[in-house]
Amino acid sequence: VINKMNQEFEKAVKSIKHISLKPDEKNRLLHNLIAYADQRPPIRTPYWRLIWSNTIVRHSVITVGIFALLVIVSGGSVVSAAERALPGDFLYRIKVSVTEPVRLVLAVGTSAKAKVHAEFAGRRLAEAERLAASNRLDPLRTAEIKSRFAGHVANFSALRDKIPFVEHGRGGLTSADVKLEVEVSAHSRVLGKLKKHSNQEKEIETIESAVNEYLNNYVWTSRSAASALIDESATTTDIPVGDKENKENDTFQASKSILSNSAFKKQQATAEVKMKKTEWSLKRNISKDGEIQREVLTDANTSLNTAQKELQRAKEEHANGRIDQAEESLRSGTRALEEASIIIKSGIDLGKTNKKKNK
Amino acid sequence: MKKHSVKDQFVSLYNAESDAIFRYCFLRTSQREVALDLTQDTFMRFWDALSNKTDIRNHRAFLFTVARNLIIDWYRKKKPQSLEELTETEDGEIFLPLSDSAHTDIELSAEARYLISKIKNLEPSYRQAVYLRFVEGMSPQEIADVLEISVNAASVRVHRGIEQLRKHTGYSE
Q1: For A16, which of B11, B135, B166 is closest by C-beta distance?
Q2: According to the model, what pLDDT value does residue B26 have?
Q3: Which of A2, A4, A19 should one mutate to test binding to chain B, selecting the residue with the greatest count of B CBs within 10 A?
Q4: In this predicted model, what pLDDT tens digit does every residue of B83-109 receive, in sequence order?
Q5: Does A23 touch chain B (CB under 8 A)?
Q6: Alpha carbon distance A299, A193 (integer Å)
Q7: What pTM does this model have?
Q8: Average confidence (pLDDT) over A112-138
Q9: What is the mean pLDDT of chain A?
């Protein structure tokens, strides 16, 4: 009975629903309503509320606020202690949730933010090195490092795709790409050395394979596609003059352009100053106790020698008027120098970690 | 994802709900032009609310509530005797009539005419609840919002209204 009633009612409802506006009535009403709406525009939300409604802005302000509060309350000691914290330490959360996001907020521009992510990816590997050196690289910490490294690489990749065309150099490389390459290459070399000196060979291999997998999946694939695209359009892409001037001062510039004479000399001078500082740092630490530290720093010395040769070659080529070759050598030299300085820093950190462990 | 402007939101709601609002007004006033005016007024009030950033929990229920209040106002402005058409309960709640003459204006099936007449014969407090549930497919929460009663009261009215409808239509077991 109920089914029959429902069927009857359904038919009736369908028929009632035929009562509707005719198309011309519907259009006429809409026309009137739009005219009415145009005369009464919506009240504007105050600008600060609009800005605050943006999740990224809100998150950034909160992060910077917490950071400022920590600095004020502890006089900066908590923040500086957190900087050296490792996964599993109490202060590690502050490092990854407060101090590092503040660095990201302060980095202006897509390329700068991508570079910060590249640096953080390197930091995660440095943490793995220090944990391995003190035999604390357990599966939980390995998983944390892997997941954070993957996060940085994914963010790097997303930002990298947004870097404007004019900032892409030869082969589609951006300065952020070079930064990531240098970080990964330097830390891979340190991890390679560590494998021989620590009992955590398996854990280190897990990290190494994860690093290769993430880089293959996210970075290299997207970069090769981008470089193909850029090589195709290289002949038609003009670099705005102002932009070119700005980029010339970038140490990591993977430039396709010919630098002006003054810009070349400026870069060369910067590289030479850095070379002296790095050499001094190496000499001061290489003679210290600790097998790992010595071995890692010896490896850094190889990079430093390469850098020295390349910088010398750049000088000669430039003097002979072979500008292209001079620039290429300057780029290779700067890169080797940067790699050396990352390895030296890691070597010193490992030395400190080892000392603590022996105590 | 691109954020829709208030105007886009308004137009899309107009396209989705204007027929239902028109039908609701037409069945209660039985005059096409009046129903058109009331539909337009309803959406104007709705725009005012949207553009003033009024917090509207359910847009559909809000539209029906505005339409209902406008129909009541229309009856009040009409000749005094038409006020008798409004049914008032003991607690002052007003129920709108379903007009008989409305369906002479348009083609309706025999079943539709029969159903409208049966709803009209329901107890006043059940009429709108049954109409909104059956014809407009509203949830108890929406019905409660439109009739400004509790969700529980809306469910009870729908249930009892359907029971009464069964009896009136001879489908009662």
Answers
A1: B135
A2: 87
A3: A19
A4: 555 554 433 344 455 555 544 556 677
A5: no
A6: 9
A7: 0.53
A8: 90
A9: 79
- Residue B88: which residues within 8 A CB-CB, separation 6 or more? B94, B95
Q: pLDDT value at position A1?
A: 58
Contacts of B18 in chain A (CB under 8 A): 21, 26, 29-30
Give me the mean pLDDT over the A229-236 stretch: 47
Identify the CA nearest to A186 among candidates A178, A176, A175. A178
Cβ distance B112 to A12 less than 8 Å, yes or no, reads yes
State the alpha helices, DSSP H only, in A287-322. 291-319
B112 in reach of chain A (CB within 8 A) = yes
Residue B163 CB neighbours (<10 A): 12
Q: What pLDDT is stored for residue B81 in this prediction?
A: 54
Binary contact (A42, B51; C-beta < 8 A): yes
User: What single letter denotes the amino acid at residue A253?
Assistant: Q
Return the pLDDT at B78: 75
The candidate with the shortest Cα–Cα distance to A21, out of B36, B53, B52, B165, is B36
What number is the ipTM of this complex? 0.82
Q: Is A85 exposed, middle or buried (0-12, 13-18, 19+ CB in 10 A)?
A: middle
> Shortest CB distance from B166 goes to which of A5, A25, A32?
A5
* Spatial contact of A298 and A290, defined as CB atoms under 8 Å apart: no
Considering only the beta carbons, identify the residue of A11, A19, A40 that sits closest to B51.
A40
Cα of A170 vs its chain's centroid, Å: 20
